Amino acid sequence: MEPFIQELMSKMSTKEKIGQLFQSNIPEFKVEGNVLVEQDIHKLIRNNEVGSLIAIKDPRIIKQLQEYNMEHSKHKIPLFVAEDIIHGCKTIFPINLGLACSFNESLIEKIAQTSAYEATSMGINLTFSPMADLVRDPRWGRVMESNGEDPYLNKVLTKAYVNGYQQDSLKNKHAIGACVKHFAAYGASESGREYNTVDISRQALWYNYLSGYQSAIDNNVASVMTAFNTFEGVAASVNSYLMNDVLREKFNFKGFVITDFTATYECIDHKVCKDNKDAALKTLNCQVDHEMVSQTYQENLATLLEEGRISEQQIDQACYRILKFKFDCGLFDDPFKNCYDDFEDRILQPEALQLSKEAAYQSCVLLKNTENALPLGDNEKVGIVGPHIDVLEHNGNWSVMADSKNNYKITDIFKNDNIIFSKGCHLTEDSSDKELINQAVIDCANVDKIVLFVGEPEIMSGEATSRAYLNLPGNQQRLFEALLELNKPIILVVLAGRPLEMKYYEDNATAILYAWFLGTMSSPALKDILFGKANPSGKLSMSFPYTVGQIPVYYNQLNTGRPSASGSYEQYRSSYIDIPNGPLYPFGYGLSYTSFKLEDITFSSLSLSNSNSIEIKLTVTNTGLYDGYEVVQLYVGALYDDISRPNKELKGFKKVFVKQNESIEVKFELTKEELSYYNSKGEIIYSEGNYNIFIGTDSDTSITNVINYTK
Ligand code: GLC
Fold this sequence. Notes:
By secondary structure, this protein is of the alpha/beta class. About 30% of the residues lie in helices and about 20% in strands. It contains 20 helices and 28 strands. A hairpin with a 2-residue loop joins β2 and β3. Bound molecules: alpha-D-glucopyranose.
C-alpha cells in the first residue's frame, strides 16, 4: 500500500473510510448568481460521508464543491468527479457503434484523448466509458454506445478508448480515469428488452462476451462498473463468480469497482437480496468499492462490522482503492488540477471539430449506390427532404455534456441554388404529416434526384429505449412511397442509433448511406460525403437483420448439425422458409465511391507451429475514380474442435488509404494466438488441426486458404 495512503488511513475512523465508498449525485442545484446555495451535499462533505460526485455539468460548481470539501472535510481528501463522456464531451463524435465502423483504433484513441482534454478542462476526473458490452440485438437501445458484435473488434477498440483516455499516466494534466462497463454481458439482455435477464452459458461468456472488459483491464483501466443484469440468476453487483472469480482472480483487476446507478438497491428487486443491509453485505463480499447513488454501504456497513459479518480489512481494501485512484490522478497534489476558469476556450476547438468531421467520414457506411446516384453533381437539381433536415439533434444519446446549439442544420449547410428543401414529415407520428408529404411530392416534381434524410429521433436509442419494431418511426415510409411515385433516384440517408429494417429500402432506394448519429459536425460531414468531397469508408460493426424476427443474427454463427449450403431454405436443413439465414447486410460490409481489388495473396507457409508464424501478404489496388480507405479483414475458422466454433471469426484487420490507380501491400502475421479461444473455465485453448483462412473486405468473404496448426 502506498505509504502516503497508509498514513492517511491510519488517521481515519471506520465511518470516514466508509464515507469514501459513496458517490453522490445532486439531483438539482439551487444556485444564486453562480454560487451553489447550501445543500445536502454540503452536509455530506462536512460529515465526511462522500467520496465522489457524479453528473455535475458546470465546472464552476465542481470548483466550489471541491473548495468547500478542502475547507470543511476532516482529512482534506479530494473528491473526484465522474461523468458519462461516451462519444465526446462538448465536441460530440459519432455514436460508438458508428465509430466502430471506422475499424480505426488510432482514430478512436485520438477521439478519446480529445474527449479527455475537454472533460478534464471541465473539472471531470473519471469517465464512465468505454462501454464494452458485446451486442447482437438491435432491439436493445444501448447498441448505440457499443463496439458492435465482434469480440476481436471489441477488444481492439476498447483498448484504444482506454489508452486515449488514460494516456501514459493518470497524473497527466489531461488524462482522465476510464471505467469499463457494464460487467458483465449486459448486451445479452433477453429479447433486447432493457434491464432484462441475461441467461448465457459460461462458454458463451468466455468465448464472446468478456473480451472487451478483459482488454480494458489488461490496459490498466482505472475502474470497472457492475452491470444491472443477472448472470446465472444472480445480479452482477452481488455475483461472486463474476466479481471475485473472473474479475479479481482471473483478470487480476486491481482498480476500483463501482456499481451502476443504484444497482445495489435493484438486487432486492432481483430477489437475490432480502433488504438493503443484505445488499450491502453481498456487494462488499463481491469486492465492490464504490456505490453509485444508492446508500446501502453508508447505512449498513458500520452495523455489519459491529455484528462481525464483515471485516475492517474489507472496508480498508475498498477505501484504499478509492484513495489510490485519487492518488494516481494527482488529486492529492492538486485537488483543482482539472478546474479551469477559461474552460470555454478549451472546448469545441477547430482541431476537435475537424477530428469529429473526419470521424464522421469514417463512420458512415455506404450500403448501396446504384446508377451512380452518389456522389451528387454540383449542377444537379436536388430535393433535400425528410424529418432530420431542419433539426439540430444529431448528437445521438449519451451526449450529456453537449448542447445541440453547437450543431448545424442540414437546411443551413446544404443551401444553394440547385437545392430545394421540403420537410416531408416528422420523425414520429404528427397530424401535419399528410400535408407535408403532399407538399414534398410537389416540391420534388422537377428535381433530378431526391436525398431523403430519415431515421430515429436521437432519444429513441440509448438507455431504456428498447424497441420491438425496427421500422422507421411515424410516417417516414409513407413519405418514401409517395416520393417513389415520382420515378426519380432516391438517396436514403439514415440517422439512427441502431440497425433498422432496411429490406424495403434496399429494394426501392437508389442509394443508402447509413450515418448513425454523427455529432457536432454531422451536417457539414454529410454535405462533404454526399457531394464527393469525402469518400465514406465505414464497415458495419453490427449485422443488419432482414427483419426483427431474425434477431439475433450475427456473422460468427456456428455451423449447426444441418447446415444449409445455400444459406437459404432447404428442407430439413437449418434455415427459414421465408428469409435467408444470413443478415441483409453482414458485419464488416461497406461500399466506397471507388472500387478495390485484392490480389496476389500469398502465405509464407501453410503449416503453423508454436515456433513459427505465417506471414500473409496481399496487394490492394484502387481500381476506381476516387482515393479512399479499404479495410482488409482476416477471418479464421476452425474445422474441428472440442466445442463447435464459429465458421469464421475476425482475427485481424488493416485499414489502408489507397489513392486511385495505386496499389499498397498489406501484411498479416498469423500465430497460434489467432487460433486460440477461451473455454468455459476461462482457460486459453490452442487446438491442433486445420483452419480455414479468409481474407476479404467483409465477413461474407469466401475461403482463401487452409492452414494446419501442430504444436
Ligand atoms: C446509467 C448507465 C451507466 C451510466 C450511469 C451513470 O444508468 O447504465 O452506463 O454510466 O448510469 O450515468
